[in-house]
């Protein structure tokens, strides 16, 4: 099994704080987002690895296991149980572990426990890890905007999962132990869920930020005024400055998309004004514009 260094993927070290991890993830997620790199065949793979690294290192319990067991962190409990059982064995037939085993030896141990090598003991049964399953889950942007539960049917079994708000298009999450069943006491495989999030008809999403174009009538653009616009969290009143130009942009902080696994934190909403030229003017209105053009 090839070892994946999550710290290296995020460009940080083991001394990094949770804030360091979050900042590194957000920077790289923007850089390698598939929507921003349509011609880069490796962007999706890099994006998935970045999400996987963040999934583990941003969770204190998972990070602790990863720091201790490396690539075998998901089997930490099985390792501890197996090592304790073999250490306590007094019949002299099992291999003893003193507790000084190096991190590099963990993988070899799990190869023997779960990868197909005969186990020690009288029965010498071969233990096989279950097959990993993969599936794709399609969501609307509104679904991805809020934390919710969904039930999946995998191999005839219903699995109820919680989908965190802020999940990204192309992101893959792993549900441990919900893959194929293990053989002869081997562990179950894992379930990998790739998310496909449909585009919204009005809002465009890039990372945690949303973008929207708003039509502005000529009179409000020239004189200023108030308008009401829709956001994903409800309606918002905007004050339009006099002499607003076509293409002018404003930023509404914290009105964008929820930040993945960061409760109460949101990206921004960037609004672009598109000024609509009035049509079907009356003769009087045309005359007023003509008079205005001469002033």
What does this structure look like?
The protein has 295 residues and is of the alpha+beta class. The protein has three domains: 6-126, DnaJ domain (Helix Hairpins); 133-197, Urease metallochaperone UreE, N-terminal domain (HSP40/DNAj peptide-binding domain); 204-294, Sandwich (HSP40/DNAj peptide-binding domain). The protein is 32% helix and 26% strand. The chain contains nine helices and 13 strands. It has helices at 6-10, 18-32, 43-57, 60-69, 76-88, 103-114, 141-145, 218-223, 283-294, and strands at 115-118, 126-128, 133-139, 148-154, 157-163, 172-175, 191-197, 204-206, 209-217, 225-231, 234-240, 249-252, 269-276. The protein has a four-stranded mixed sheet with strand order 8-9-13-12. The chain has a three-stranded mixed sheet with strand order 3-7-6. A two-stranded antiparallel ribbon has the order 1-2. Helix 2 packs antiparallel against helix 3 (43-57). It is elongated and about 95 Å long. The N and C termini lie far apart (77 Å).
How many structural domains in the coordinates?
3
Q: So what's the overall shape? A: elongated
Radius of gyration: 28 Å
The helix-and-strand class reads alpha+beta
CATH superfamily of the largest domain: DnaJ domain
Low-confidence stretches: 90-123
How many helices does DSSP assign?
A: 9
Oligomer: single chain
CATH architecture of the largest domain: Orthogonal Bundle
User: What order do the strands of the largest sheet run in, or round the barrel if closed?
Assistant: 8-9-13-12
Task: Say what the CATH topology of the largest domain is.
Answer: Helix Hairpins
Largest beta-sheet details: 4 strands, mixed
Order of helices and strands: HHHHHHEEEHEEEEEEHEEEEH
């Amino acid at each position: 099994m090839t070892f994946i260094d999550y710290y290296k993927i995020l460009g940080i070290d083991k001394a990094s704080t949770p804030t360091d991890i979050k900042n590194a993830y957000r920077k790289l997620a923007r850089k390698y987002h598939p929507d921003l790199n349509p011609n880069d065949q490796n962007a999706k793979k890099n994006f998935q690895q970045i999400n996987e690294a963040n999934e583990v290192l941003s969770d204190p319990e998972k990070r602790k296991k990863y720091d201790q067991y490396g690539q075998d962190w998901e089997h930490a409990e099985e390792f501890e149980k197996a090592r304790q059982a073999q250490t306590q064995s007094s019949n002299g037939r099992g291999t003893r572990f003193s507790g000084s085993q190096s991190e590099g030896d963990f993988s070899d141990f799990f190869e023997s426990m779960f990868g197909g090598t005969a186990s020690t003991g009288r029965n010498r049964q071969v233990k096989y890890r279950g097959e990993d399953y993969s599936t794709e889950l399609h969501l609307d942007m509104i679904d991805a905007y809020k934390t919710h539960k969904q039930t999946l049917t995998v191999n005839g079994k219903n699995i109820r999962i919680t989908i965190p708000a802020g999940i990204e298009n192309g992101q893959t999450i792993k549900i441990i132990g919900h893959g194929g069943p293990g053989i002869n006491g081997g562990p179950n495989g894992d379930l990998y869920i790739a998310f496909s999030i449909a585009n919204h008809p009005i809002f465009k999403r890039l990372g945690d930020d949303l973008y929207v174009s708003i039509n502005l009538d000529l009179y409000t653009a020239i004189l200023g005024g108030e308008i009401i616009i829709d956001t994903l969290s409800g309606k918002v009143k905007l004050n339009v400055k006099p002499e607003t130009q076509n293409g002018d942009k404003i930023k509404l902080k914290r009105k964008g998309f929820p930040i993945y696994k960061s409760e109460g934190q949101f990206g921004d909403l960037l609004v672009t004004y598109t000024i609509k030229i009035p049509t079907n003017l009356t003769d009087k209105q045309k005359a007023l514009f003509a008079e205005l053009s001469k002033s």
